[in-house]
Amino acid sequence: MTTHAPTRPTDATAEVSTDDGIAATIAPERSGWIPGTNRIAFGGDYNPEQWDRSVWLEDIALMKDAGVSLVSVGIFSWALLEPREGEYDFSFLDEVMDLLHDAGVSVDLGTPTAAPPAWFWKAHPEARPVTRDGLTLWHGSRGMASPSSSAYRTAATRIADALAAHYAGHPALVLWHVHNEYGAPVSECYSDASSGAFRRWLQSRYSTLDALNAAWGTAFWGQRYGEWDEIDAPRTSASVVNPAHRLDFARYTSNALLECFIAERDAIKRHTPHLPVTTNFMSSNCPSIDYWRWSREVDIVANDYYLVAERADNHVLLALDADLTRSFAGGRPWILMEHSTGAVNWQPRNIAKRPGELARNSLVSVARGADAVLFFQFRASRSGAEKFHSAMLPHGGTATRIWREVEALGVTLGGITDVMGGTVPARVAILWDIESFWAQDLEWRPSVDLGHRERVVAFYTELWRRDVAVDFAHPHDDLSAYDVVLAPASYLLDVASAANLRGFVEGGGRLVASYFSGIVDEHDSVPDGPYPGGLREVLGLRIDEFLPLHAGERPTLDDGSTGSVWSDDVVLDGAQAVATFRDGPAAGRAGVTRNAYGKGSAWYVSTALDADALGGLLERVLEEAGVPSRPAHAVAGLERVERRTADTVFVFLANHGDADVTVDDVSGVDAMTGEAVSGLVVPGAGVRVVRTPIAS
């Protein structure tokens, strides 16, 4: 398992020794923030190559009208910037950057390596990515080549180096944007180049075949390897492939992609060491990237987030993603690099945002730590696969509601500049470990209903409903700053993680673990002894047998709550039963337990409690820990978030319902009008921001 440093920023360049076969260099001291930025950055992707010069002039004039201060350019321009291998033409980009600078608009310059040009594919067919089923993917879409292709890495690093050398002194350039959405749409690649690189990665990780065979449990099904070249990528096979093999390939994939980013970043830093370099994460929605590791390699964390339009709770998921991104950033401000003004174009039903939703989504991100709000994209494309994707300037132009809301948002963001740099203090953390998620979501688990994300969302939602601030943490992190730690989906726990959680509880913390946690180690192997492995002692129980439930089965507990999905044959070994099953396969067994351990306590929830029961349980734990919460509001309710600077608390109130809501317990000054707040009304679908001085 990769060794994780604490998520708080590091201040010096250092070589990190990991056990994953790759020596990673932590980025030098972070640049702080976007140079020259003294307001919340506002703007989006700009693709001038799709338009002639007269449109550029119109666009830049409109950017000034809307208060746009930062645009990302060049992200898909490789074919123009290097029309033939080794031949560069930066003329169109030179002119665009000059025009933007003259208008006072700064540039986030992209390396165009997510879209290799046609000449590259013609010259290097071996770089095409291959799916697990052996299908070769061809040119004609977006997405990178095989991340292990030496031809691709050479070409990508070369164009990054040429761009950095050319634009090192350009006054518009304030930020570098490497690639675009690593891991989408290509993440795992099963090409011959990837298989060879995977073997080398394994040799570095395990050193000997005996160590690999032991870690992978290859005695099962006669899978033992006698030579390194017998090992292939875990391609589709006749039955389920060894899960430890699959898990290591997922680790390798994240690292292979990261090596691509580091190569481009280092080429850029040779020419512009003073400028920050980032890439756009997809924090909770990219299944192939370990962002805890990646966050150590970027100067500023940036994220793309698009609402799942048809989900009624999509604003809760937006908040989760923002909190997760802030956590990857170690509490520092982050960039909302992409979101949409309205509908996207790639969901099954691309539902438009309601009036006011554009601003509300943006301001919720600011409330949760973003100091930059950018959209995809500035002007809507007339051609290509994304011509029906919304934009800051829609096809209908400046007469549209979206454009009016964009202009209004620019004014609003300008009015809350002093929130920049503020933090979101949290006393509760949710564990987030992508390696555990990779392992949990493989085939042949005890139930098809055990996907990790559902439990994480369920726990987060109940805290969101009670206005409880949340950080996310890796189980290796220092947890001492938190009073409560939740483990909704910690299927995989190595020895260090389990010890860390025991130490947290022993020192006075409260831990809540959900079912199917602590089941395997870092090799997806079950440790000696009963379930739940390294959590047995701290939870004060053992599990003799999993008792998954039928679809739709809902056993009751003696406190009136109901469960679903799962139950366990729990045997208490020091813990006390908080609620017991009345019926179902676990009738008479504990469904919820509490164990006093050291100065703290550890709780176990062996079923998917109904939402109100789960929320009530979390309220009880929060109260025991002294963490304040508010009465639960409806999912389409009033979201309240506090962000603090040295001398001010900013209270963001976002009304996700249609009816006006009066808030009586907020005092201070309206951030936009400067008027004293009394009996504050938050209009339906609206947002209010209140400044309250911190008493010295």
| Classification by helices and strands | alpha/beta
* Amount of helix: 25-40%
Low-confidence stretches: 1-29
CATH superfamily of the largest domain: Glycosidases
Q: Give me the side-by-side strand order of the main sheet.
A: 7-6-5-4-3-11-10-9-8
State the CATH class of the largest domain: Alpha Beta
What is the CATH topology descriptor of the largest domain?
TIM Barrel
Number of helices: 17
Overall pLDDT: 94
Straight-line distance between termini: 46 Å
Q: Percent of residues in beta strands?
A: 15-25%
β-strand number: 27
Largest sheet: 9 strands, parallel
- What coarse outline follows from CA principal-axis ratios? globular
CATH architecture of the largest domain: Alpha-Beta Barrel
Computed CA radius of gyration, to the nearest angstrom: 26 Å
Number of domains: 3
Family: Belongs to the glycosyl hydrolase 42 family.
EC number: 3.2.1.23
Keywords: Glycosidase, Hydrolase, Metal-binding, Zinc
Domain Beta-galactosidase trimerisation: 426-627
Structural commentary:
The protein is an alpha/beta fold and 696 residues long. The chain has 3 domains: 41-419, Glycosidases (TIM Barrel), CATH 3.20.20.80; 428-625, 3-Layer(aba) Sandwich (Rossmann fold); 638-693, Immunoglobulin-like (Sandwich). A 9-stranded parallel β-sheet has the order 7-6-5-4-3-11-10-9-8, with helices on one face. Helix 5 packs parallel to helix 8 (243-269) and helix 14 crosses helix 17 (611-625). The longest helix is centred in the middle third of the chain and has 27 residues, at 243-269. The two termini are 46 Å apart.
